[in-house]
Amino acid sequence: MIVITERCVGCAICMLVCPAEAIRVEGKAEVNIEKCESCKKCLIYCPINAVSWVE
Q1: Which string of DSSP letters, residue by residue, matches 11-49?
Q2: Which CATH architecture has domain 2-53?
Q3: pLDDT score, position 36
């Protein structure tokens, strides 16, 4: 499962790279777990490592 940490600054890169459109940004990024396909693109592209993967 993808988790957005408190380090998020709301740059919206994760939202732009998400193929499932499962992320929205309103100040900080939020993941819609029901839409998330676990592709981990948000984790790979986050420039400040604010995205984590939790089993």
Answers
A1: --HHHHH-TT--EEEESEEEE-TTT-----HHHHH-TT-
A2: 2-Layer Sandwich (3.30)
A3: 97
